[in-house]
Amino acid sequence: MNDNSSLKAALSRRTVLKATAAAAAGAGGMVPGLQSAVWAQGSDKPEKEEVRIGFIPLTDCASVVMASVLGFDRKYGVKIVPTKETSWAGVRDKLVNGELDMAHVLYGLIYGVHLGVSGPKKDMAVLMSLNNNGQAITLSKKLADKGAVDGASLAKVMAADRRDYTFAQTFPTGTHAMWLYYWLASAGINPFKDAKVITVPPPQMVANMRVGNMDGFCVGEPWNHRAIMDGIGITAVTSQEVWKDHPEKTLGTTADFVRKYPNTCRAVIAAVLEASKWIDAGLQNKLKMAETVAAKSYINTSVDAINQRILGRYQNGLGKTWDDPNHMKFFNDGAVNFPYLSDGMWFLTQHKRWGLIKEHPDYLAVARQVNQIDLYKEAAAAAKVSVPTQVMRSSKLIDGVVWDGKDPAKYADGFKVKVG
């Protein structure tokens, strides 16, 4: 992009942002102080142009990687530097100490850090949701050979053959822990009384199952499909079967970074939105994405381990195959990316359910602190992405219970299987 086109683009974005701000103010929806914050420097030029974004080798890091590889970042005046990390604990620490500016990160990790659970307390921010769906729970082939192939049969095997059962998740307050606990509980298994739960970094799941360190794990792709390819595990349930179109990874940062670099945040959100839209635009784009992220510098696995499930082509490792319309989605006309307050609140209800927090928080107030709704809307306007009219959404999960964000304390207390 030459200087003239860059200037036109900047002016165009500024016009859009001004129009958005004016419309919001006219509708009485402007948050006090927001307009002055937006225009404090008289420009939407990113305050920090090089942005270090951490990622874990997982398929759902793709929109951050492709925003950099395809140059969507430069369109918005920033340079994304994808930074490969080895564990979620490492991502947490580097976000908190400022070594990373942002990260592809577990939704529940951001909320856990914000409340001081599983690490030092730090005010955090969710800039956008990166993907829906695309995780799974794998049971070991040894367990499957004994008849444990889904939740109900797992409960029967555990009742008949009493021993210590070990399941792995990737971070104590993260999404995989919550999907694992929710699924086990839906089958009548209390993850804290009936089993042992350990934390293992995603890229190490398959290797740990191979040497018998666990009976099952919950993790993102491609590691569930990799376990099938290696003949050591079977897919017992996908995360989209636990919660269709569930929130998963976010673009996370600290509240300090948002306050200091709001224009940079908007630019990165807009760039990742465009990359998300590009990925979901068609088969060829997804295949190109798979080839890109499979490389050693990103996920470091074969393309075959990635490209089947991103197209919705599933197998469970026991001969069953199916086309899943609810496979991993990065955009879905912007529905994926909006940081719904009810999504953030849900993780708090599960943290309370499982004793990770002792008292009911002010669920809505915390979600409003963390999820940067206004920032997201402004970036979405710049990227010409539609936004929903409501900040809450309603979903029915695998146990038939509906979550709509209306009474989070009652919801959290209403589960039969819980801690305390």
TrEMBL record:
Per the record, GO CC terms? endomembrane system
**Keywords of the record:** Cell inner membrane, Cell membrane, Membrane, Signal, Transport
Q: Where is the signal peptide?
A: none
Q: Where does the UniProt annotation locate this protein?
A: Endomembrane system
| PANTHER family according to UniProt | ALIPHATIC SULFONATES-BINDING PROTEIN-RELATED (PTHR30024), NITRATE_NITRITE BINDING PROTEIN NRTA (PTHR30024:SF7)
The family annotation for this protein states: Belongs to the CmpA/NrtA family.
> Under which name does UniProt file this protein?
Nitrate transporter
Q: Which organism is it from?
A: Caldimonas thermodepolymerans
